[in-house]
């Protein structure tokens, strides 16, 4: 027999281990993806359900808004509380120090600015659309009972409580700092009694939210907002340094120095958030600076009499500046230590030609001469001599300069302030503008004489007038007859002229003083009269004729003796010769024998 071998069918080879692992991983990922899709679908559904709703179970000051959309929740709160704003709440205040004294008044919430911020309240309760898991959790697990967010206008509340509590207790007094006359004054803080504003706001708010019709408050001890520590801090940080020394503002080459006495009135310290803060009155500081400068052309320095003594008036530069720049620099210097209280201000500056230094160099320090004359009352003399004095007063002669009375006083006209009076013309009295001005010329001449200045031009009256010193007097007439003298010293000369008007019962007084540095001690010697001349008589038939009784003319000599100031030896002398013509008598009418 033959044996037959049946072959074994072939078998597929087994998969490698790595391939088996990859297949298992794909299955796991697929399962996870399916699970995530299921979860995401549920989360999306949860978000759709929650939306912007308030968490379930939420109440606001007792009003249930749980599960409502944000808009519906706001509307619900407005409906619950909106009408209460106009409903008065009885506020009663008891004075703990006065025992049983109690006061009450109705206060409408809207009168004190009390209002619920509905949107902020609902948002604080958890409303709002969000994919945050915490947001979804809060919505489905329930909310809390929260208080409404309430705003109160503390200013309005304080004013209302002040009315209600007037006379109850003693209000606390804040500490204060004031500035006056260059010094710092302190008002100490004083504790008192008052209604606590925060407690009052809480009590009234609680009554409003709780739908109560009353709130009880109590006047209790109260500390001032500005206490001793606040006052001391303000003193150390600002007030005392501000008054410690002057502040200097620099404009180009010129300086404006402001003393504490000058600017004290522009400073104040006001309470703000429980402390005293400095304030500067910008208008007053700007006015001070403008007073020391010129907003237009620069002003030269000069010398003026102050309380009878010469004082240098500083030059004023022409300055253009922004007030806020001045205030900023000034304020920044107030707390600076001494030696660091100078600051430059941005400005356009035009310097004066004659500086403060130049004015000081004039050496106008003391009175070096004075002369006084008197005149009989006449209103035209009061007017004309007074006007001349006004124009001469304050004149400064620098070394080498010449004074001219005609140039200084100007033409004697009505427009220049003069009136008609008697003048001497061609040896007789006539009426014209400026009558009496020669009195000012004579007084000024004598002040010049005793100051030791150089005589350039003077003309005595044609005939002698007995109220003037003989040989030491001068007349003037526009524009031909002048009084001129030169300052031939090394110092400036300030002329001060005044007139005390005459009255029916008193003479007028003319006084001229000169101020400088004294160089000469002057004496005057007058000779006796000589070479007399008898007057004649004139007969005038003109409408302006003024009758006059004449007197004799004569010659006289005056010697000016110069000694250097403080020395006895004569340095030199100067002789003045005067020849007075006879003052003719004037008869108004024809000569004898020629009448009708």
From TrEMBL:
PANTHER family according to UniProt: EXPORTED PROTEIN, EXPORTED PROTEIN-RELATED
Please list every transmembrane segment annotated in the UniProt record, as residue ranges: 27-46
Report whether Transcription regulation shows up as a keyword of the record: no
Residues covered by the YoaR-like putative peptidoglycan binding domain: 108-211
Q: What is the lineage of its organism?
A: Bacteria, Bacillati, Actinomycetota, Actinomycetes, Propionibacteriales
Q: Which UniProt keywords apply?
A: Membrane, Transmembrane, Transmembrane helix
* InterPro entries in UniProt: Glycopeptide_resist_protein, Vancomycin_resist_VanW, YoaR-like_PG-bd
- Write down the Pfam families for this protein, in alphabetical order: PG_binding_4, VanW
Q: Where is this region: Disordered?
A: 1-20
Domain of life of the organism in this record? Bacteria
Query: Bias category Pro residues: which stretches?
Result: 7-16
Record's protein name: YoaR-like putative peptidoglycan binding domain-containing protein
